[in-house]
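Input chain follows. Return C-alpha cells only.
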Amino acid sequence: MKHIHVRINELLEENGISRNKICKDLEIPRGNFNRYSRDEFQRIDANLIIKLCEYFECDIQDLLEIVDD
C-alpha cells in the first residue's frame, strides 16, 4: 500500500528550523503539525500545504511524495 509523505522533517533539517519556530511562525497547533510530520493524517489541509510551500520557498513536489508502506 502507498501513502503520501509530507517531507516536513527533511525540510526542517535542511533549513535548520525547529518545530517550535515553524509552528509559531505559521500559527499551526503543535499537535496538528506533529501528525503531519509523522504522516498520521487522513486528509491534507490545502491551506497548510500552501503555507508550507511558501515558508520553505519550495514547490509542492518538493513537499509531498508518494511512498510505499
